[in-house]
Amino acid sequence: MADRQTSSPQLAARTPAQELLDALGPITGFHDSSSLGAFGMPSGAMTEDMLASAATATVATRFGPLEKVHAFWFAGMSCDGCSVAVTGATNPSVESMMLGAHPGLPRVILHHPVLNMESGPHYLRPAEEAIEGTLDAPYVVILEGSIADEVVAHASGGYWSATGEEPWGADGELRPVSSTEWVARLAPNAAAMIAIGTCATWGGVPSAAGNPTGAMSLMDFLGKDYRSVLGVPVVNVPGCPPIGDNFTETVAAVLYFLQGFGPLPEFDELGRPAWLFGETVHRRCVRGAYYEEGTFAHEFGDPECLVEIGCWGPVVNCNITSRGAIKGLGGCMNAGGACIGCTMPGFPDKFTPFYKRPPGSLASTTVSRLVGSVIRPLRKFSNDNLNREVRWDRQGASPSAFSREKTEPSALADVGHKFYDKMRRAGDTARNDADVWGKRPDEAPSGGSPRIRS
Predict the structure, then answer these.
(1) Overall domain count for the chain
(2) Short-list 80, 95, 454, CA closest to 241
(3) Which of 273, 289, 260, 292 is nearest to 234 (CA)?
């Protein structure tokens, strides 16, 4: 197992996906649809058919050739947190995409094991049609959770995580079909392959040191040369769980591309949406100014910067602090939690132990403290001056009853504030001679003078 996990992709003759298909062999058939009956159809209709009458995607609104796109959602080594996060997305929401409510976008026919009404063979039928090549629209594959090494599991007669059964066993017997196998069989003809969550994008917790599953990311599984039928590499939206809006926004951007309504959006060298993961947590952190001033929290619940109690925000690519978790609210640092690097490829092994001061922060926080010891008093000095009306300065007192016990500025502070005001006014260009704006020289006041003193 260790050899399979650590082998160099440059030296591997075949990708893990190809190795799995080689081990499993070709498939010979699918369920007999005529004998399925109504079992697994509590509503008497497929979810797609139930929503079709309420969908609003028409020729007039979609601006492109695609009326719909199927999205097959599979869960590998997963806790289902990504599904929970996405159901909370609002920009756009899952339900609005399923109804085709966004101009330019085709409606999304989502095949999700939790959200769909149908179950069993009825639920699997669209995926079978996709493999057969008879599906009525293009499809994308979404993977939640990491890919387990099903080659090893298959050799011992087992599997790690499965989605349904198919007659792909010996002599057409039903056997569980792993999510990994579905992904491998659907990938060659997919319009796009999208990994959601850190487990699917980088391997995540299931791939941590010591795991017995051989877990890996979707990119590791398909290989660096993978391209969808439309030329799109694997798209990665990391997070544990990811921000729901990050995922739905990325899907919408990819769908606009598939619709021919826009270019493929910009992704970084690891397949992440560049506009969402281009900056670190720290740059948009609500506690970032405390770091600049050299003041740090000593325990959770303190309002200051959390770096010294285990926050990795300065070196982690994520937009949680600026976007929030749901509807712009919440988010790790916004709610007082330290960043543990869950969006990064090195998570979790390179970030443990959690909630301990990162070794590399010692140098930067020391410098920050030194600089902050000068900056904080200067800012306090200016703040004291700007917290007073000019009238109060002339009268020598502020009229608020709340300030009875507050002493007025000392004579030294008063002199300092006046000196500060003098420096401020020295740069006031409104007090200097200036060109007459918007008039010709002969239209200027004072007998046509091109200059005017305010």
Answers:
(1) 2
(2) 80
(3) 273
Q: What is the DSSP string of 45-63?
A: S-HHHHHHTT----HHHH-
Alpha helix ranges (H) inside 63-210 = 81-87, 94-98, 120-132, 150-155, 179-186, 198-202
pLDDT < 70 stretches in the chain: 1-12, 57, 60, 403-406, 431-454
107-111 and 68-75 as β-strands: parallel, antiparallel, unpaired? Answer: parallel
- End-to-end Cα separation, the chain, in angstroms: 81
Residue-wise pLDDT tens digits, 110-154: 999 988 988 899 999 999 999 999 999 999 999 999 999 999 999
Cα–Cα distances in Å, from 450 out to 40, 238, 438?
A: 87, 62, 11
β-strand partners of 452: 434
Closest among 313, 291, 314, 316 to 303, alpha carbons compared: 291
On the CB side of 324, how many CA atoms lie within 13 Å of its CA?
A: 9
Predicted local distance difference test score (pLDDT) of residue 430:
73
**What pLDDT is recorded for position 454?**
46
Do residues 98 and 107 make contact, with C-beta atoms less than 8 angstroms apart? yes
Residues 126/70, Cβ–Cβ less than 8 Å: yes
pLDDT of residue 52: 82
419's tokens: 């000196």
- Picking from 216, 248, 276, the residue at the C-terminal end of a domain is 276
Predicted confidence at residue 431, as pLDDT, reads 67
pLDDT digits (tens, 9 = 90+) for 176-207: 999 999 999 999 999 999 999 999 999 999 99
DSSP3 helix / strand / coil % (the chain, rounded to 5): 40, 10, 45
What predicted TM-score, i.e. pTM, was given to this entire model?
0.85
For residue 350, the enclosing domain spans 279-398+408-424
Q: Rounded to an integer, what distance in angstroms lies between the CA atom of residue 202 and that of residue 239?
A: 10
Residue 451 lies in a domain: no
The pair phi, psi for residue 248, each rounded to 5°, is -65, -35
Q: What is the pLDDT of residue 2?
A: 46
- Whether 142 and 94 have beta carbons less than 8 Å apart is answered as no
Contact between 169 and 18 (Cβ < 8 Å)? no
Same domain for 315 and 225: no
Q: What is the pLDDT of residue 403?
A: 64
C-alpha–C-alpha distance, residues 146 and 179, integer Å: 10
* DSSP H or E run through 373: helix 361-386
In a domain, 310, yes or no: yes
Q: What's the pLDDT at 452?
A: 47
Residue 353, preceding peptide bond in cis (omega within 30° of 0): yes
Residue 197 lies in a domain: yes
Q: What angle do CA 27, 29, 33 make, to 5 degrees?
A: 150
